[in-house]
Amino acid sequence: MEILFQNVWLVPLFPFSSFVLLGLISFFFPNSIKNSRRICSFISIFSLSIAMFLSFHLFWQQITGSPIHQFFWSWITNKNVILEIGYLIDPLTSIMLILVTTVGVVVMIYSDSYMSHDRGYIRFFCYLSLFTASMLGLVLSPNLLQIYIFWELVGMCSYLLIGFWFTRPSAANACQKAFVTNRIGDFGLLLGILGVYWITGSFDFQDLSEKFLKLLDDNQINIIFANICAILLFLGPVAKSAQFPLHVWLPDAMEGPTPISALIHAATMVAAGIFLVARMFPLFQMLPLVMEIISWIGAITALLGACIAITQKDLKKSLAYSTMSQLGYMILALGIGSYKAGLFHLITHAYSKALLFLGSGSVIHSLEPIVGYHPNKSQNMNFMGGLRKHMPITALTFLFGTLSLSGIPPFACFWSKDEILLNSWFHFSILGFIAFFTAGLTAFYMFRIYLLTFEGNFKGYLLNNKDKNSSSISIWGNDIIPDKIEQKGTKIYISSNEIITQNLLYPKESDQIMLFSLMILTIPTLFVGLIGEIFFEKESDSDLLSNWLHLSMNSLNNIHSERFIEFLQNAIPSILVAFTGILIAFLFYGFHFYTVDIISKVKKVQFFHFTTKSIFLSVYNWSYYQGYIDQLYNFLFIRSLRFLTKYLSLIDQWLIDGIVNGIGISSFFGGEGLKYTEGGKISSYLFFLVSCMFLSFLYSYII
């Protein structure tokens, strides 16, 4: 068993080796890419599956009482500095390894079908393998220096995958936006790491926490500097986990393929920020000001994401803002000291959100041949509806994910979200009110998404022929032949003031591989919440994840009817809030939504008309346009920076260059003038000498 712990570096090595192998195949054998697709996908899935089984074994060892293992190798040795690399295996690491590998394997299986017709198929799996390997390396890192290296690798992979379809301008812009926004957070993280090293003299997680506590007890730390360093450390997770105000990259990241959206939102990039806050939790807990900032950032992010999600018409962007809101819940939980609840919600949300994104990919994949391949059409919920009749399995699995995220028992997210709501209320009532209000909004927008997508009548035929024909072109410029459609007879409808008769096209259920992935994810969505700490005895003086992970029959025997009744009583408020949100969603979209298109009626409103209608539409516009935050950033940073650089360029061109050029021109003409006075004749020199002397005497005489 000790051999396994000493060789745990094999977990990230397997997916990394598949990345190298696939890269070599695509580089040295470019002509065989078409024939080697299945082999390459098998290599990626098989290598990550091995890592998954190793992770399960490590997880089992941890929950059965194995001690924490930590291994180091010397990297840089100096008289004053010793830098080491290695890995750390504890309950937090083991559960994150399970999360990354299980979701990663399911996403890879799903991608084998979803990306089967894409020209970048092997490149996609190559990036995917590196992405998972980087995240696994980050999770195993025992110190801040090593975690920063893998942190940057995760960011690089997200840049490559968000911009995977780089020929599409929106995708190219989205990956650049994600890259630049995360550079802001990463710069803060780097400064925070250096500041913590300056204070403690260590990068190791365990050592720096112990040294920081000792220095704090001895009053040998400048508390202002320590708070600044901790806030800079937190700036990295703010960007990586899409927290306000560095959240703007996450919705645009939906330009990447849908399997990548599932992986980013469930188990890799955004989870990295939550993981780092959890890993640094002992240090943050010593600084009350930092904990307050973390909790309020989480609460604001949760509320803002939910408020924006309620009006979005893009299916994937609606789920993206949902992710932003749920990540806010996790940060809020960690900020108020509810360590277990925050990490528990990270796990339950990961499987539910992966299920929802892969379900949305199934919908988009089936709609594209009908409404077109542009995201404005294939992801637009205005052109969906009634899909439950044609895609029953996708609809059912999507409903499970919707119920889970809405906080309905016994689905996974209910158990974790309920604990966050209660803890936030007991910590500070305003934070609790924000959390409960956001829970109601979550139930509303999730059922809004489900009802607009799967219930009512199919509205894809509302697009006219011209729009469909113009958009039925792949990103590579090739014509697409619709092969996933069903004909359901002939119908007459009105479009562009003309009566058009044609065969209606309806989406078809996805293939077995994609459906298999969806059904696999329904299992943890249904049952992973049942292992929550609500069934086990709570220790008032301990809040370690290991207590939550440790499952045994003795723990199950501790379940009493009194505790269960008490839990149900505490859960009643959150359940009522969730059902209220669901009821409102049904009132708006459940019965007549196919005849009322709210979004199409939204027009620009003059804000000085203080009528009820104008105020409502103003709020609606604020939500629909993402709180105008992108426009604000565009004005403050992009347009103002361009304005500044433009005028600095003019100053440089006319003032700085003008002075230099003026000196040069003056020297040129002066030299040209002097050239004619230096002819080599003594008489000319005497004439100029006498003339100058005469002028000098004349000037002195006049003065």
UniProtKB/TrEMBL annotation:
<feature type="transmembrane region" description="Helical">
    <location>
        <begin position="354"/>
        <end position="373"/>
    </location>
</feature>
<feature type="transmembrane region" description="Helical">
    <location>
        <begin position="293"/>
        <end position="315"/>
    </location>
</feature>
<keyword id="KW-0793">Thylakoid</keyword>
<comment type="similarity">
    <text>Belongs to the complex I subunit 5 family.</text>
</comment>
<feature type="transmembrane region" description="Helical">
    <location>
        <begin position="6"/>
        <end position="29"/>
    </location>
</feature>
<dbReference type="InterPro" id="IPR018393">
    <property type="entry name" value="NADHpl_OxRdtase_5_subgr"/>
</dbReference>
<feature type="transmembrane region" description="Helical">
    <location>
        <begin position="647"/>
        <end position="670"/>
    </location>
</feature>
<keyword id="KW-0472">Membrane</keyword>
<feature type="transmembrane region" description="Helical">
    <location>
        <begin position="85"/>
        <end position="109"/>
    </location>
</feature>
<keyword id="KW-0150">Chloroplast</keyword>
<protein>
    <recommendedName>
        <fullName>NAD(P)H-quinone oxidoreductase subunit 5, chloroplastic</fullName>
        <ecNumber>7.1.1.-</ecNumber>
    </recommendedName>
</protein>
<dbReference type="Pfam" id="PF00662">
    <property type="entry name" value="Proton_antipo_N"/>
</dbReference>
<feature type="transmembrane region" description="Helical">
    <location>
        <begin position="179"/>
        <end position="200"/>
    </location>
</feature>
<feature type="transmembrane region" description="Helical">
    <location>
        <begin position="424"/>
        <end position="447"/>
    </location>
</feature>
<feature type="transmembrane region" description="Helical">
    <location>
        <begin position="571"/>
        <end position="594"/>
    </location>
</feature>
<feature type="transmembrane region" description="Helical">
    <location>
        <begin position="682"/>
        <end position="702"/>
    </location>
</feature>
<feature type="transmembrane region" description="Helical">
    <location>
        <begin position="393"/>
        <end position="412"/>
    </location>
</feature>
<feature type="transmembrane region" description="Helical">
    <location>
        <begin position="260"/>
        <end position="281"/>
    </location>
</feature>
<comment type="subunit">
    <text>NDH is composed of at least 16 different subunits, 5 of which are encoded in the nucleus.</text>
</comment>
<dbReference type="Pfam" id="PF00361">
    <property type="entry name" value="Proton_antipo_M"/>
</dbReference>
<dbReference type="Pfam" id="PF01010">
    <property type="entry name" value="Proton_antipo_C"/>
</dbReference>
<comment type="function">
    <text>NDH shuttles electrons from NAD(P)H:plastoquinone, via FMN and iron-sulfur (Fe-S) centers, to quinones in the photosynthetic chain and possibly in a chloroplast respiratory chain. The immediate electron acceptor for the enzyme in this species is believed to be plastoquinone. Couples the redox reaction to proton translocation, and thus conserves the redox energy in a proton gradient.</text>
</comment>
<dbReference type="GO" id="GO:0008137">
    <property type="term" value="F:NADH dehydrogenase (ubiquinone) activity"/>
</dbReference>
<feature type="transmembrane region" description="Helical">
    <location>
        <begin position="513"/>
        <end position="536"/>
    </location>
</feature>
<dbReference type="GO" id="GO:0042773">
    <property type="term" value="P:ATP synthesis coupled electron transport"/>
</dbReference>
<feature type="domain" description="NADH:ubiquinone/plastoquinone oxidoreductase chloroplast chain 5 C-terminal">
    <location>
        <begin position="492"/>
        <end position="652"/>
    </location>
</feature>
<dbReference type="InterPro" id="IPR001750">
    <property type="entry name" value="ND/Mrp_TM"/>
</dbReference>
<keyword id="KW-0813">Transport</keyword>
<keyword id="KW-1278">Translocase</keyword>
<dbReference type="InterPro" id="IPR002128">
    <property type="entry name" value="NADH_UbQ_OxRdtase_chlpt_su5_C"/>
</dbReference>
<keyword id="KW-1133">Transmembrane helix</keyword>
<feature type="transmembrane region" description="Helical">
    <location>
        <begin position="327"/>
        <end position="348"/>
    </location>
</feature>
<feature type="domain" description="NADH-Ubiquinone oxidoreductase (complex I) chain 5 N-terminal">
    <location>
        <begin position="75"/>
        <end position="125"/>
    </location>
</feature>
<feature type="transmembrane region" description="Helical">
    <location>
        <begin position="220"/>
        <end position="239"/>
    </location>
</feature>
<keyword id="KW-0618">Plastoquinone</keyword>
<dbReference type="InterPro" id="IPR001516">
    <property type="entry name" value="Proton_antipo_N"/>
</dbReference>
<keyword id="KW-0934">Plastid</keyword>
<dbReference type="GO" id="GO:0009535">
    <property type="term" value="C:chloroplast thylakoid membrane"/>
</dbReference>
<dbReference type="InterPro" id="IPR003945">
    <property type="entry name" value="NU5C-like"/>
</dbReference>
<feature type="transmembrane region" description="Helical">
    <location>
        <begin position="121"/>
        <end position="141"/>
    </location>
</feature>
<feature type="transmembrane region" description="Helical">
    <location>
        <begin position="147"/>
        <end position="167"/>
    </location>
</feature>
<feature type="domain" description="NADH:quinone oxidoreductase/Mrp antiporter transmembrane">
    <location>
        <begin position="141"/>
        <end position="442"/>
    </location>
</feature>
